[in-house]
Amino acid sequence: MPVVDITKDLDALTLTIVADFAAPVERVWQLYADPRQLEQVWGPPEYPATFVDHDLAPGGRVTYYMTSPEGDRYHGCWVVGEVAAPDRFAFDDFFANADFEPDTSLPASHCTYAFVERDGGTRATYVSGYDSAEALQQVLDMGMEEGSRSAINQIDEFLAR
């Protein structure tokens, strides 16, 4: 499985996931740069994602929704801060309403995704920072760790196709 470590740090207000992929950095980058590819692995398999807008550039927005097995939609949006292709990008990640506006009643995270070459493949480090320990605990209670593990663990298989 690609996920090799998950660290929850309530003092640093971060959730860090480290994964190793059997594909070069550029190929992993392409997955995040192409919304049709990203749809195949964003979120747990039982909650498929649909990306509506995908502007992976500084100041850009990425909007999407995930559909539950019962047909309910859960919306999200990113506000992209930094992009240094193919090595890293950073964004603020929000739960959103149906109009893709941030839902301020739920925690937002400040994310940095970094990719480095490792043994011919890619080591990905996903860091999500929160404004408070309560916000981090809330997303952990919502199943963020399990959902992220499930989503990331499907990337290798997708990249091998």
UniProtKB/TrEMBL annotation:
Record SUPFAM superfamilies: Bet v1-like
Domain Activator of Hsp90 ATPase homologue 1/2-like C-terminal: 22-159
Pfam families listed in its UniProt record: AHSA1
Protein family per UniProt: Belongs to the AHA1 family.
UniProt source species: Micropruina glycogenica
Official protein name in the record: Activator of Hsp90 ATPase homologue 1/2-like C-terminal domain-containing protein
